[in-house]
Write a structure and sequence with these properties.
alpha+beta; 60s Ribosomal Protein L30, Chain: A; Phosphoribosyl-aminoimidazole Synthetase, Chain A, domain 2; four-stranded mixed β-sheet; globular
Length: 339
Amino acid sequence: MSRVTLAHGAGGKAMRDLITGMVLAQFGNPLLAPLEDQARIALHDLAAHGDRLAFTTDSFVVDPLEFPGGDIGRLAVFGTVNDLAVSGARPLYLSCGLILEEGLELELLERMLASMKTAAREAGVSIVTGDTKVVNRGAADKLFINTAGIGVVPAGVEIGAHRAVPGDVVIVNGHLGDHGVAILQARGDLALTLAVASDCQPLHGLIDCMRAACPDIHCLRDATRGGLATVLDEFAHSSGVGIRLDEESLPVRDAVRGVCEILGLDALYLANEGKLAAVVPAEAAGRTLAAMRAHPGGADSRIIGEVIAAARPRVTLRTAFGSERVVDMLVGEQLPRIC
């Protein structure tokens, strides 16, 4: 079985063969084809989409590399696309940096690159530049991927964590915690067989529909590490407001809820890879929710809470028993190596 060797990262023929025979074969496009040390993108092509550049970077170290509903390649593309999309930007171009462990099976690497290619096509973005490094056996865990992404924000779009005001409504686009439980299941940490797959998906198409229904979305963020609770705490502190959630409105699958009860986890803190939290004006909530439910990425969208005036910024949860508890930002790590 062919495997990655240190020669694949040495800058010579083996590395060239890996890049041309495997990477370029999957990602080939006019911007990548010259194999220069950078991609050269015409400014007028960017300016045609808006008046501001959105630029993000992310790294992916998920364990295991493949899991129900996705893999590290799909995660890398969609995770970067979503970080751009929640600013209102149209995602356009990605980079791909590969950190390979000596001994990695080349067939597995090729499978992950093919997954990235499929995900990029699905998201409508191009992978236009990248880098490859190989580390000694044991210095990494098979494969890490670093990505950067650029997109363009249309004129007039102003979405930010600081814009929530009392009276606004909080909406999520579906079930919480699926990704975290899918990873647990793939690791063999659960002596259960569950029909739960990762929610890994691109969100920019859904966000386009939301913006058409509500041009003035106040806050928008994808709820990845730290889950929904951490995102909403960031909104509350950036805006100087309170956010009150309704426990009975939170969309959590029975299987996910059961895992949380068994392991002492909280679905509000579990990672998601295809869920967003939006804060919109109350008068636009109905039409925004309808637009979200009409899109495949938001069919299970729900209103889960409201923004309120508060003496100090915080998120609270109104429980099914009528009591109220504080939902603080995640302290520590519920599940490591989740994305």
